Amino acid sequence: MGQALSLGGLTASGESLPEIGQEVGVGRDVRALSVTMEPERALVDHLVATTGLTPAEAARVIEDVVAFHAEPVEEFVLRRHTQLKTYGAKNPEIFARIAEELETRVVAAPRLSERQLRRLVYG
């Protein structure tokens, strides 16, 4: 997928990685994300110790979680609106649900009004 996340020198693909504090690509498209090494190394070690995953597998799980939460607000809103519309939900219900979901995101999104959500969807 072309993704790389530096976790104490480990990657799921075995690729060479940037040094501490440099930016690395994360996500389906390459996005810049500044990475601090020590917490990720500790997390890899924790997952290895508690799950039976290999270091490369643990690094890949962390990479996937970081990529999931790196989605910009605009993309999240458009994606969720499309998903919910597919199942027959109406806009008032959709916008209320998206607003609730945004409040619970791990990486906090700004609070958006229904009008702002509508503008993201319809322009």
Structure description:
The protein has two domains: 1-70, no CATH class; 73-122, no CATH class. It starts with 22 loop residues before the first strand and ends with a helix. Helices cover 54% and strands 7% of the residues. Residues 1-37 have low confidence and may be disordered. It has five helices and two strands; from the N terminus they run ββααααα. A two-stranded antiparallel ribbon has the order 1-2. It has helices at 37-51, 55-69, 73-86, 91-103, 114-122; strands spanning 23-26, 31-34. With 123 residues, the protein is mainly alpha-helical.
A few lines on this structure:
The protein has helices spanning 37-51, 55-69, 73-86, 91-103, 114-122; strands at 23-26, 31-34. It has 123 residues and is mainly alpha-helical.
Unreliable spans: 1-37
The total count of helices amounts to 5
Shape: elongated
Proportion of residues in helical segments:
40-55%
Task: Report Rg.
Answer: 17 Å
In what range is the share of β-strand residues? 5-15%
User: What is the overall pLDDT average?
Assistant: 76
